[in-house]
Amino acid sequence: MAPVRSIAFVFLMAIVLVPVVPALAHTAIVKVDGRWQLQVDGKPYVARGVTFSGSSSSAAYEQDCARLAALGVNTLRTWGTTSETRLLLDAAHKHGLKVLVGLWLRQGRPGAESDDSFDYLRDKQGMKKQLADTLAQVRHFKDHPAVLAWGIGNEVLLNSPDDAKEAYARFLEQVIKEVKKLDAGHPVISVDAWMFGVPWWEKYTPSLDAYGINVYGHGIHVISGELAKAGVAKPWLITEFGAQGEWDAPKDANGVPREPADAEKYAAIVDGWRNALAPQVEAGRCLGLFVFNYSSAFDHTGLWLGMLSGSSTRPAWHAVREAYTGQKPATPLPTIASVTVGDVKQDESGTWAQVRVEAKDAAGAPLDVSFAYNFRGASTRHARDEVVRLQARPGTTPDTWLVRMPSVKGAIKLYVLAKDRAGNLASATTSVALPPTR
């Protein structure tokens, strides 16, 4: 009997030691009672998402996904894949999140998206390589249970010359058809800004399962009407959303676009989901939302639209939670009521501005106040997006600061940053026209 027991033991151990591979999740977009519905394994699924850049490195993906799940987020969106994408998919799956996996296609003009550009009219070999690269990514990730769908291309039509738009849209159709041959278990969308992609998709890219629309500010309240006027019958998702963007913002007296106040940013997200999109989801037109952006970047875009700044939480963090769960902040967030820039003077140590800041938290406790600047007139893309800390010291009267101005020519965007003890960061901006340096 001993040999029998040994064989049984070995067999049992083999079963125990075989790794458990999660079952592939099947996603589909179907019509139910005349309404479009996103389904995962046959069950209705509404994407309550954020776009995802991460808080730091891939080592933080576990923590990132856990924190986002606690905010009511169920889906992440990426723009492309990297060597760390599988780590993100693993972390997302562990915490019950799905991922709209981005498959990057090159932009169609210089100056767009890291200054990359591609000729969709003439570069046949380049298109062949992009197709091969895209299919390789699909093969690599298609069986991961965290994959919700594929998002092919981001704002390429927006960033393409008019004579190349048709060529790109036709190429996109070719890519989509080949992706679907490899993977019938996940829908395919493409993403563009506002309505710029719609006419081209409608005419030349019929294989798309749904349209991804990037829209900001009040546009979220009118996009459904614009899609209806264009005769769009396919479902759609809002693939980027946040407060009014710089490209739409009115300029102040110094020619600097006015950034919305923190309270406006917060309200835009909550209102956008509840009042603009929820009725469209119910009507079977919209499949979900992705708020831009889960990132901790301390730069122009990060401070305007990000959910984090370093380790500090920004208004969008709390707004996402309220939008998706109804939960408001436990205590009111810190506020900066006013910023007033007084005299700008030069001495042998540099150029200094007197700045009065009215800021407080809910309990009236002092806030950690600091200053930074951005120079949108800089000559390079990196410099235009960079936010640089400024030296400051308390002024001679309460709530005033002497802030050392940078040595640049022209108007700068001045940031006042105020952090409370709970790690919530408030921000307010104004502009300063700097005098010529001596």
Report on the architecture of this protein:
This protein is α/β, with parallel strands linked by helices and 438 residues long. The protein has 2 domains: 305 residues, Glycosidases (TIM Barrel), CATH 3.20.20.80; 100 residues, Immunoglobulins (Immunoglobulin-like). Helices cover 30% and strands 31% of the residues. The chain has 11 helices and 21 strands. An 8-stranded parallel β-barrel has the order 4-5-6-7-8-9-10-11, surrounded by 5 helices. Helix 4 packs parallel to helix 5. The N terminus is likely disordered.
Helix content: 25-40%
Count of folded domains: 2
Fourth-tier CATH superfamily name of the largest domain: Glycosidases
CATH architecture of the largest domain, please?
Alpha-Beta Barrel
What percent of residues are in strands?
25-35%
Number of strands: 21
Mean pLDDT: 92
Q: Over the alpha carbons, how many angstroms does the gyration radius reach?
A: 25 Å
InterPro entries: GH (IPR017853), Glyco_hydro_2_cat (IPR006103)
Protein name: Glycoside hydrolase family 2 catalytic domain-containing protein
GO molecular function, one term: hydrolase activity, hydrolyzing O-glycosyl compounds
Domain Glycoside hydrolase family 2 catalytic: 62-243
In brief, what are we looking at here?
With 438 residues, the chain is of the alpha/beta class. It has two domains: 21-325, Alpha-Beta Barrel (TIM Barrel); 335-434, Immunoglobulin-like. It is built from eleven helices and 21 strands.
What are its keywords?
hydrolase activity, hydrolyzing O-glycosyl compounds, four-stranded antiparallel beta sheet, 438 residues, 11 helices, Immunoglobulin-like, GH, Glycoside hydrolase family 2 catalytic domain-containing protein, globular, 21 strands, Glyco_hydro_2_cat, alpha/beta, TIM Barrel, 2 domains, eight-stranded parallel barrel
